[in-house]
Amino acid sequence: MKSLHRLTCFLLLGLLAVTLIAACNTASNTRVTNTHTTNDQPQVGNCRIIQHEFGETCVPLKPQRIVALNPDINLDPLIALGIEPIGYTSDRIKGKEVLSGVSLDDVKGATNVGKPDQPSIEKIFMLKPDLILATKYHPYQFLSAIAPTVVVPSPNLEMAGHEAFFKENLRYVAKVLGEETKAESVLSQYQKRIEDLKQRLGNRLSQIKVSVIYYIHGLVYTPAKNYDATADVLIDLGLHYKLPPSGKSFSIESVDEYNTDILFIINLERKPLSFFLQHPIFSRLKAVKNNRAYLVPLERWDTRGILGANQILDDLFKYLPENT
After folding, report:
1. What is the per-residue pLDDT across 81-127, written as a single tens digit (0 to 9) for each?
2. Count of the separate structural domains present in the chain
3. Domain with 258 in it
4. Under DSSP, is residue 54 helix (H, G, I), strand (E, B) or coil?
5. Residue 98 in 3-state DSSP?
6. What ranges make up the beta strands (E) of the chain?
7. Closest-CA residue to 310 (of 197, 209, 212, 208)
8. Is position 274 within any domain?
9. What CATH number is associated with residue 237?
10. Domain shared by 135 and 216, yes or no
11. Boundaries of each Fe/B12 periplasmic-binding domain copy (predicted)?
12. What CA–CA distance (Å, rounded) separates 119 from 47?
């Protein structure tokens, strides 16, 4: 059995090497081919040229077999655009499969190809994709030998733009797929929900002070704007949101800085709410005393996609009104 496995691996690596050489030759030929522009996107024959961090990729105009290798950065916007992948990655928490911002129902029928930081090249190869959506942390050379691969930009605290990352992210993936109009429709629906919640909160909107913290092993840190969807949703609402000091973690003794009317706790350790209610430091916070401290799931609030942003909005509709 071991010799058969080795033979299979050898053949697979051989196929990858041949495909890589062919891809390199194709890329070389593409560079000397005249291009023309349609809808602001350069096209060569039946593909669309997309620039990304590792170069440029000729993406099929209508890809049918897409593999998305990060739940936040490329699976979330893909599903939001109404496109079903054939392959995806996911995390596991205490043996349970979880996807940030995306429901497992959204990927029914698709193949799990591993973890976001360690996808299986062999499983991806066997799916015969015609487009791979990756990040800069994935093995681009191997992936691009299998199929056209686009490196979708990742959030960066030091290079954050002026717009929320989840909005830039959706627009980028939409550009890759030629679905710009659909992306603007999705963003308009999100903005309508923002306005609906503002109207529901009325005058209280200018009075509510909100904090969001991650908790793990006695340390806390907070979501950053133009990076985490949580911060950007709260800012879009116009709430008084306590911004983090450069996104760095700090000791739990400093949590008094986040002594606000409402506190959302993203609990990385999966501790029960009673842990925080009885904690000598947390228990003195205004939100805890007034029963306005809420535990929120990591997979719903630790997100950087438009679907994740809408899940956060779902919870804000539930928790922000006074009668909750």
Report:
1. 999 999 999 998 878 898 988 999 999 999 999 999 999 999 999 99
2. 2
3. 202-319
4. coil
5. strand
6. 36-38, 41-44, 47-52, 55-60, 66-68, 87-88, 91-93, 96-98, 111-112, 114-115, 118-119, 131-134, 149-151, 209-216, 219-221, 240-241, 250-251, 262-267, 293-296
7. 197
8. yes
9. 3.40.50.1980
10. no
11. 66-324
12. 26
CA dist., res. 123 & res. 143, Å (int): 11
DSSP lists the bridge partners of residue 91 as: 98
Residue range 153-180: average pLDDT? 88
The values of phi and psi at residue 193, to 5°, are -65, -40
Query: 218 lies in a domain?
Result: yes
Residue in 73, 91, 97, 27 with CA at minimum distance from that of residue 306 = 73
277 is a domain residue: yes
Within-domain flag for 20: no
Residue 261 pLDDT > 70: yes
Give 8-24 as a DSSP string: HHHHHHHHHHHHHHHHH
* Cα dihedral 303/305/306/310 (nearest 10): -10
Do 64 and 122 belong to one domain? yes
Answer positive or negative: Cα dihedral of 272, 274, 279, 281: positive
Confidence of residue 250 (pLDDT cuts 50, 70, 90): confident
pTM of the model: 0.84
114's tokens = 């591993």
pLDDT tens across 33-81, in order? 223 333 345 555 689 999 999 999 999 999 999 999 999 999 999 999 9
Tell me if 85 sits within 8 A of 102, measured CB to CB. Answer: no
The answer on 211 and 136 residing in a single domain is no
